[in-house]
Prior knowledge:
This protein is mainly alpha-helical. It has helices at residues 9-23, 34-54, 73-88, 90-103, 116-130, 136-170, 177-212.
Amino acid sequence: xxxxxxxxxxxxxxxxxxxxxxxxxxxxxxxxxxxxxxxxxxxxxxxxxxxxxxxxxxxxxxxxxxxxxxxxxxxxxxxxxxxxxxxxxxxxxxxxxxxxxxxxxxxxxxxxxxxxxxxxxxxxxxxxxxxxxxxxxxxxxxxxxxxxxxxxxxxxxxxxxxxxxxxxxxxxxxxxxxxxxxxxxxxxxxxxxxxxxxxxxxxxxxxxxxxxx
Length: 213
């Protein structure tokens, strides 16, 4: 299904450029989900037509002659997430490309013929299309909830370590000094790992707050 896209001349070039840069981050074969590959090809064909129109003289070109935009908002959002995922995880993208090469041309692979990994990616892609877009506020609340849960895990870990240390003092025959040192070092490593996770998530939340404001 194609969707009408009403844009003005001054944003046409910026829109085409932004979509082309986003789409060019990965090749079509690097996308795991068959539907994502089909949407990539549709958008690529639309951009080819838009760039041909863009090459015409600005005073004579008519944007109304460009066919309707081939994707819905939800489909475009899902495709963008699929492209981001493939660009961020090149190993998975390479596996998808090899699977696509074994299966023949990308357009010949249907969701029923795709391998297990492609089927999982297809289900994820369809779920994103059917789900409403997540607002920055919702993402912020979800992230804060995850931090809350992980902070409880830190408290439990510290409590267990303290209990083991007390137990080692009261009943030294239960834990050897080497075991106690290993437990303390492991707890310290876990605390450092969680600190790095907290720092990364707080940076994400900072960007979300900027989006909200």
